Amino acid sequence: MLITTAPFVEGYRIKRYGPLVCAEAVMGTNLFKDYFAKVRDVVGGRSGSFQNALADARESILHEVQVQAKKADCNAIIAIDIDYGEVSGSNKTMLMVAVQGTAVYIEPA
Question: Among the CATH numbers 3.30.360.10, 1.10.3720.10, 3.30.110.70, 3.40.30.10, which is that of 2-108?
């Protein structure tokens, strides 16, 4: 299934608009990930564990919106937006990923 941030697909026409498709994932991080992320925050560098958690969440919710689009008999999702965030409190960190877009049925122009 084609997924794009653009509002259209060049060379194709939108035959039918489907519903707004959206999905969210909020994932907890464990004590060790939090600890090593704080260390990297001080000394610099990338946090592989956080990057992997975000990538897993993104892939999961992109799959969810594809399922929603297929149920609506659509073959593409346009104008997709992916947002990332962090929810913290009480010494706990949660990673949040949200995606939304418009399901459409496209065909070659």
Answer: 3.30.110.70
pLDDT tens digit sequence for 76-85: 999 999 998 8
Q: What is the tens place of the pLDDT at every residue in 27-77? A: 876 544 555 555 555 555 565 667 777 888 899 999 999 999 999 999 999
Rounded Cα–Cα distance for residues 90 and 57 (Å)? 23
Strand duo 92-108 + 76-89: pairing: antiparallel
Return the ∠ at Cα 84 (arms to 87 and 17), rounded to 5°. 130
**Cβ atoms within 10 Å of 104's Cβ, excluding its own:** 25
Distance CA 64, CA 88 (A): 25
| Whole-number Cα distances in Å, 48 to 13, 65, 93 | 40, 26, 16
Provide the H-helix boundaries in the chain: 31-43, 48-71
